[in-house]
Automatic annotation (TrEMBL):
Signal peptide: 1-22
Active site: 170, 212 (nucleophile)
GO cellular component, as recorded: GPI-anchor transamidase complex
Keyword terms of this UniProt record: GPI-anchor biosynthesis, Signal
Bias-annotated ranges (Polar residues): 358-367
Source taxon at top rank: Eukaryota
Taxonomic source organism: Hebeloma cylindrosporum
Biased composition (Basic and acidic residues): 339-353
Pathway(s) this gene product operates in, as recorded in its UniProt entry: Glycolipid biosynthesis; glycosylphosphatidylinositol-anchor biosynthesis
Record-level GO BP terms: attachment of GPI anchor to protein; GPI anchor biosynthetic process; proteolysis
Protein name as annotated: GPI-anchor transamidase
C-alpha cells in the first residue's frame, strides 16, 4: 500500500511539473504563429490589434467630382483589404452618384473607360452633405460626441488601434476648405491628433492628404507615432489625372490615382512596405512633389507593412490566465472596453479619472508571497515550481527505495 501511495504521488507531481513546461511551450508556439508573418513587437513590428479608417471628401458641387472619386477609391481599397464598414468613417460633402448631371445615375467612376463603379449598394456614407463640417470631423477624431450620435458614426478606437486618415478637397498653405464656407487649419489637425494621443485613442496614425499645397497640412503635427504624406509642396497645385468626355469633368486626382494603382497589387497577406508605396509616386506623372514626414514615427518605413494601416489585422494579444479573485469580480466593477463603445466625453473622462480604489479607503499592502512572485516573475516562478517538484519526486523515490 505504501508503495502504491508513493507511486500515485510520483505520477501526480510528474504531471504537474510537465504541465508547467507544456504551458510555456504552447504559449511560445502561439506567439510564433502570430509573429511569423511579421516582425515581433518592438521597433520594427506593429503592436496594434485593430484598424480604422477616416475618409473625408470636403468638396461640394459637380465640378469636384474627382474629390468624391478620390475618397470612394480609398474606401473601396481599405474594404477590399479587410477593414469592415463598422471600422470606416466615410464623409462625403456631396453625392455625385445622385447628381442630376450624372449621365450614369447611381455610379461614380475613377477612370475614363468606366471599368469600375466606386458607388453602389454596398457603400455606407456616415456623414453626408451638410453634415461634413470641421466640427464633426474633429468630434469624430477626438470622440467628443453627443450621446445621441449612433455607434456607426463614431470612431471607437483605442490605444491598440492603427488609424488611416485620408482627406481630399481644395486647400492652400496650412488650410483645407470644407464646402467652400469654412476651413480647417494645420493647427486644428495637429491639436486633434494630440487630443487623441492624450486620450489613448490610437497606436499609430497614417495621415494622407491630396490637395493643393498638401504638405503644409502636416507641418504642425507634434504627437508621437504619426506618419504623414501629402501630394504637393508649398506653392504647388495638386492636379487631376484624367477627364471623361461623357461625364464632362475630371474623374480623379493624379496623386490618389497612382496610390490606388499601386494598391491594386496588394492583398491582405502582402509583405509590401510603406517605403515601397511612398516611393512609387512619380513626380513627372503627378506634376507636383509629394512629401513624407517620418520624424514622429517610431518604426522604419521599410519594416512597416502597408497592411498595418490599409488592412484588417489577424493578430491577438496573449494575456496570462485570470486569477480566481479576478474571475469572481462582479461585472459591474469592470468598466466597458473602449473598443466596445464609447459614450459622451463626460463618461470617457469619468473612466480615466476615477481609480478602482473606493474613496476614503486605504489600498491593502501586497502580501509577502505576492511581492516575492512579482520579483521573481511569472516564468521564474514556473521554473521554480518544476524544479521543486523534481526534487521532491527524487526524495520520495529514494525514501521508498530505502524502505524496501
Amino acid at each position: 500500500m505504501l508503495f502504491l501511495s508513493v507511486l500515485h504521488l510520483f505520477l501526480c507531481l510528474s504531471s504537474w511539473a510537465w504541465g508547467v513546461y507544456s504551458l510555456d511551450t504552447q504559449e511560445q508556439i502561439v506567439r510564433n504563429f502570430f509573429e511569423k508573418n511579421g516582425s515581433p513587437v518592438g521597433e520594427t513590428g506593429s503592436t496594434h490589434t485593430n484598424n480604422w479608417a477616416v475618409l473625408v471628401c470636403s468638396s461640394r458641387y459637380w465640378f469636384n467630382y474627382r474629390h468624391m472619386a478620390n475618397a470612394l477609391g480609398m474606401y473601396r481599397t481599405v474594404k477590399r483589404l479587410g477593414i469592415p464598414d463598422s471600422n470606416i468613417i466615410l464623409m462625403l460633402a456631396d453625392d455625385a452618384s445622385c447628381n442630376s448631371r450624372n449621365k450614369f445615375p447611381g455610379s461614380v467612376y475613377a477612370n475614363p473607360g468606366r471599368h469600375l463603379d466606386l458607388s453602389g449598394d454596398n457603400i455606407e456614407v456616415d456623414y453626408r452633405g451638410y453634415e461634413v463640417t470641421v466640427e464633426n470631423f474633429i468630434r469624430v477624431l477626438t470622440g467628443r460626441m453627443d450621446p445621441s450620435v449612433p455607434r456607426s458614426k463614431r470612431l471607437l478606437s483605442d490605444e491598440r488601434s492603427n488609424i488611416f486618415v485620408y482627406m481630399t478637397g481644395h486647400g492652400g498653405n496650412e488650410f483645407l476648405k470644407f464646402q467652400d464656407n469654412e476651413e480647417i487649419s494645420a493647427f486644428d489637425i495637429a491639436d486633434a491628433f494630440e487630443q487623441m494621443y492624450q486620450k489613448k485613442r490610437y497606436n499609430e496614425i497614417f495621415f494622407m492628404i491630396d490637395t493643393c499645397q498638401a504638405n503644409t497640412m502636416y507641418s504642425k503635427l507634434y504627437s508621437p507615432n504619426i506618419l504623414a504624406t501629402g501630394s504637393s509642396n508649398l506653392g504647388e497645385n495638386s492636379y487631376s489625372h484624367a477627364n471623361d468626355n461623357d461625364i464632362g469633368v475630371a474623374v480623379i486626382d493624379a496623386f490618389t490615382h497612382y496610390v490606388l494603382e499601386f494598391m491594386e497589387k496588394i492583398n491582405k497577406t502582402s509583405q509590401v512596405s510603406m517605403q515601397e508605396l511612398l516611393s512609387s509616386v512619380d513626380v513627372t506623372k503627378i506634376n507636383s512633389h509629394p512629401g513624407v514626414r517620418t520624424d514622429l514615427f517610431r518604426r522604419s518605413l521599410d519594416k512597416t507593412r502597408i497592411t498595418d494601416f490599409f488592412g484588417g489585422v489577424a493578430q491577438v494579444e496573449i494575456v496570462p490566465p485570470l486569477d480566481v479573485a479576478d474571475m469572481n469580480t462582479p461585472d459591474e466593477a469592470i468598466p466597458e472596453s473602449t473598443n466596445k463603445g464609447k459614450g459622451d466625453n463626460e463618461s470617457q473622462e469619468h473612466l480615466q479619472l476615477h481609480s478602482d480604489v473606493p474613496s476614503g479607503s486605504t489600498p491593502q499592502e501586497p502580501s509577502t508571497l505576492a511581492k516575492a512572485l512579482n520579483w521573481m516573475g511569472e516564468k521564474e516562478w514556473k521554473n521554480a515550481r518544476a524544479w521543486a517538484s523534481v526534487t521532491l519526486i527524487g526524495f520520495l523515490a529514494s525514501w521508498a527505495a530505502s524502505k524496501h
